[in-house]
Amino acid sequence: MGWGVGARGEAGWVGVRSVEAGVAPTAVDVRTRYYGRHDRRADVGWRQADAGVLRSAVHGSARLEGMFAPFTLEGTHVRLEPLSHDHVDELLEAATGDRSSFGFTLVPSDRAAMTAYVEKALAHAGAGDQVPFATRSVALGTVVGATRFYELEPWDWTELEPGATPAPHGGVRDRASIGHTWLGPAVQRTPVNTEAKLLMLGHAFETWRVRAVRLQTDSRNERSRAAIARLGCSLDGVLRVDRPAPDGAVRHSAVFSMTADEWPAARSGLEQRLGR
């Protein structure tokens, strides 16, 4: 299979669509923006999945970019932009003021800490194991938080019983996690987080074609657990004594997941919540 990248008639924008024989275009209209000037010579490019590496022909030059090439996911309420040092000031502004909802989440509170936070996320992105975003509210026009893909796992299918056949799969990763998510109080309990998850889940299932997406939170965070469940995820269990928590406690992690088979129903539910 392959992935076609074709112009949408808007400078700088390309839409990701499946070109596997017999597969209809995806239902979620995820717009993926690659940085740089729009080049009509690259209106049609191809990304061919090959051992987890995608060969990209975007902006007039064919190069190995992979699934980690910077992209933006945009909807009606939210725009997820590739995280950069340019976001430090806006992230810091979103993180200051009322911090009462950040008790179970690491949210830097000063410039030095926020700069280190961004640099660490970018280092993970450079290593090819995370895709971090700054979350921008379309209505407010400002950055209101951050989120990312992480634990982007290609499973090892080489150690099977003799004669065993790997389960069919056409994606570039077997599983992805969504997390490191925080939002300023101004946009909590608004459509911003719901649409951000719709866009990210859609990208994971419909572009990367993962088998499952995992989300987790501190087991004490009932608000976060309820929000994850409302996405259509199921609780897999609680990892006891999992890691340090930001408040100095030992965190037990409530782990949720959604499978590719469950995504269509979950997508419909999220779209209904957003009034689509």
Structure description:
The chain contains 5 helices and 14 strands. Residues 1-64 have low confidence and may be disordered. It has a 14-stranded mixed beta sheet with strand order 6-5-4-1-2-3-7-8-9-10-11-12-14-13, sandwiched between helices. The chain folds into 2 domains: 1-71, no CATH class; 73-273, Aminopeptidase (3-Layer(aba) Sandwich). The chain has helices at 88-95, 111-127, 191-207, 222-230, 263-273, and strands at 3-7, 13-18, 31-33, 44-50, 53-58, 61-64, 73-74, 78-82, 130-137, 143-153, 175-183, 212-218, 234-244, 250-259. The two termini are 30 Å apart. Helix 1 (88-95) packs across helix 2 and helix 3 packs antiparallel against helix 5. A hairpin with a 5-residue loop joins strand 13 (234-244) and strand 14 (250-259). With 276 residues, it is α+β, with helices and mostly antiparallel strands.
> Could you give the order of the helices and strands?
EEEEEEEEHHEEEHEHEEH
By secondary-structure content and strand pairing, the structural class works out as alpha+beta
Rg computed from alpha carbons, rounded to a whole number of angstroms: 19 Å
Share of β-strand residues: 25-35%
What is the CATH H-level superfamily of the largest domain?
Gcn5-related N-acetyltransferase (GNAT)
Seen as an oligomer or otherwise, the chain set is single chain
The overall number of domains is 2
Mean pLDDT: 80
What kind of sheet is the major sheet?
14 strands, mixed
How far the N terminus sits from the C terminus, by CA atoms, comes to: 30 Å
**Overall 3D form:** globular
Number of strands: 14
Which fold name fills CATH's third level, the topology of the largest domain? Answer: Aminopeptidase
Low-confidence stretches: 1-64
